[in-house]
Amino acid sequence: MKTRQNPLSRFEAFMQRLIEGPFAFLFPSRLEPVEVARKLERAMEDNVFQGVDRLLAPNVYDIYLSIKDHQRFSPSQAILVREWQEDLVNLARQRHYTLRSNPVLRLHADSSLRPGLVRIEAELVDRQHRTGDPSVDGEVMETQALSAEQLAQLRAQLQSGQLLPGIDVPAGSSMSGLATVRPAPPMPQAWLTIRVPQGQQIYRIEKPVVNIGRQLNNDIIVEDKRVSRYHAQIKYQPNGQFMLFDLGSTNGITVNGMPGVRQHTLRSGDRFTIGSYDFYFERR
Fold first, then answer.
1. Domain final position from 76, 106, 123
2. What CATH number has the domain bearing residue 225?
């Protein structure tokens, strides 16, 4: 099915590309995951299709990166894709768009792109349509009938690769037949003791995702030029563990004295270093 853009949206997208293109060519910068997220959101909004009684959002996104950026994102690709999927689902809910499946995101290396540039092609794939690509065909499912809480639990299921508790899928849904088990336990108490050149402070982990980096919208801001704008993330998992992830940073994370760690299951007493900041993790 072809997508249909609003003429004003097409014009705005054209003007933005007209301005961004030459600027990016003259002043190339390091591509960060948040920039890809913004472009994915724009691709969704620019390619919304007006159905009979609802606005249908594209559910397949091909992300083309330079070879250098593709290699840099590859180690944390699964984590990034999950985050971008969540962003798109949240945007669809805010704009009252209908998603016929959980968004499918595929990364490609494109030798014609310079580092720092990204091209995204968005497509709406019907549930009845089969592309021959298992990454698309296996994801297609009806989501319109699910509540916001059920959607959140389904996203958690995709992250863990396991059946998750408390999902009661409506009869007739393509997700029906899942086992229903007990609700997941609440997030345990956990905190970080952060040692910086100026002293020490305590950060209590009170939400499932904690972002660490140099950019000011991170939860923990590390004021060090060696640290990437979006450097690392601590994420509470459905299995009750806290995971530390490197988000494709330049200088990496040192965990318990081991440099270059890409992901690590945090245990009470673990230490990790990002730039000039030392972190000591504890939990109950």
1. 123
2. 2.60.200.20
Half-sphere exposure for 186 (CA within 13 Å, toward CB): 6
* Residue 28, pLDDT score: 53
- Statement to judge: residues 195 and 276 lie in one domain: yes
pLDDT tens digit string along 82-131? 999 999 998 988 888 888 888 999 988 888 888 889 999 998 886 544 44
Does residue 38 fall inside a structural domain?
A: yes
Structural domain contains residue 18: no
Kindly report the average pLDDT of the chain as a whole number: 76
Domain boundary among the residues 123, 153, 182 is at 123
The answer to whether the CB of 142 falls within 8 A of the CB of 127 is: yes
- Show the domain range for 33: 28-123
What is the spatial distance between Cα 4 and Cα 7, in angstroms, rounded to a whole number?
9
As a whole number of angstroms, the distance between CA 158 and CA 41 comes to: 20
Asked if 143 contacts 127 with a C-beta cutoff of 8 angstroms, the reply is no
Half-sphere exposure at residue 74, Cβ-oriented, CA atoms within 13 angstroms: 9
Distance CA 147, CA 45 (A): 22
- Measured CA to CA, the distance from residue 182 to residue 161 in angstroms comes to 17
In Å, how far are 27, 130, 186 from 88, measured between CA atoms? 28, 22, 26
Number of domains into which the chain is organized: 2
Tell me, what CATH number does 109's domain have?
3.30.2320.60
Where are the alpha helices (H) located in the chain, listed in sequence order? 7-26, 33-46, 67-73, 77-95, 134-137, 148-160
DSSP secondary structure, 153-179, as one string = HHHHHHHHTS--TT--PPTT-TTTT--
